[in-house]
């Protein structure tokens, strides 16, 4: 509805306003209401000699919808990806909203962009310490939960074989073997089930790599390195999530709390389509 105000002021009123505000006289004005043909209401006042028109404000359905749209987001609950995640002192948080996961990592660790992984961080003071996340393809996996891998023990054996296959070397006289140290199942604060797996892998190298016979090469084998691999398995969005942390076995034995804080901080969640 449009309201139009029409004001008409007589010549005597205008002269009075210029001369003395205290001697205003409105006896020459009168107000009349006119109903317009378009359904609007027009209020006007007429005088003897002068007439002015003031156009009022118009409020319609468009303004009401704009106001409602501005207020509606304030009334909705916060999105899951909008929740603020606060890491403990000395850590930072890495959050991937596209694939749906996050974890804590030491604030002095650096990202590596040339590793070919989805995300990769390493310890600049220890070349043997690093972590990355591997997420299965959404077109080739249909994981409803981490239990689709079997029991924690069965998943740990598969994880160990995966590590040994990835660490396979073409060097002569090199041998790799490993063992499962721990395989547990837990329910995270988000209500999802996770498998916590630890495996130990040892690498042996021969001093006689150029020996003619394998038996001669195996005689002089020595321990080259010994590493601890901490893996957290989870499932969301019908995909398998693998959080993989690597360090030396000695370093893990000396300070397991800090490394387990990193591993147990891993969370995977459903992503809105």
Automatic annotation (TrEMBL):
UniProt GO cellular component terms: extrinsic component of membrane; photosystem II oxygen evolving complex
Taxonomic lineage from the root: Eukaryota, Viridiplantae, Chlorophyta, core chlorophytes, Trebouxiophyceae
Residue ranges constituting the PsbP C-terminal domain according to the UniProt record: 90-267
Coiled coil spans: none
Transmembrane region(s): none
BP GO terms, sorted: photosynthesis
Superkingdom assignment: Eukaryota
UniProt-listed Pfam families: PsbP (PF01789)
One GO MF term: calcium ion binding
Database matches in InterPro entries: Mog1/PsbP_a/b/a-sand, PsbP_C
Name of the molecule in the record: PsbP C-terminal domain-containing protein
Record-linked PANTHER family: PSBP DOMAIN-CONTAINING PROTEIN 1, CHLOROPLASTIC (PTHR31407:SF15), PTHR31407
């Amino acid at each position: 509805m449009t309201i139009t105000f029409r004001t008409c002021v007589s010549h005597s009123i205008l002269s009075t306003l210029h001369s003395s505000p205290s001697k205003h006289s409105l006896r020459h004005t009168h107000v009349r209401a006119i109903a317009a043909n378009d359904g609007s209401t027009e209020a006007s006042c007429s005088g003897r000699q002068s007439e002015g028109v003031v156009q009022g404000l118009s409020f319609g359905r468009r303004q009401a919808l704009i106001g409602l749209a501005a207020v509606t987001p304030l009334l909705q609950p916060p999105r899951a990806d909008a929740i603020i995640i606060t890491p403990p002192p000395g850590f930072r948080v890495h959050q991937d909203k596209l694939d749906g996961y996050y974890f804590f990592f030491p604030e002095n660790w650096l990202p590596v962009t040339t590793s070919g992984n989805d995300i990769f961080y390493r310890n600049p003071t220890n070349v043997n310490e690093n972590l990355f996340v591997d997420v299965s393809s959404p077109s080739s996996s249909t994981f409803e939960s981490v239990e689709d891998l079997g029991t924690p023990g069965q998943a740990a054996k598969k994880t160990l074989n995966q590590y040994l296959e990835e660490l396979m070397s073409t060097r002569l006289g090199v041998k790799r073997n490993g063992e499962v140290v721990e395989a547990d199942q837990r329910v995270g604060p988000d209500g999802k089930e996770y498998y916590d797996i630890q495996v130990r892998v040892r690498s042996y190298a021969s001093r006689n790599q150029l020996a003619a016979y394998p038996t001669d090469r195996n005689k002089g084998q020595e321990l080259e390195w010994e590493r601890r691999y901490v893996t957290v398995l989870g499932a969301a969005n019908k995909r398998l999530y693998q959080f993989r942390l690597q360090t030396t076995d000695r370093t893990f034995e000396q300070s397991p709390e800090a490394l387990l804080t990193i591993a147990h901080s891993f969370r995977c969640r459903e992503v809105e389509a």
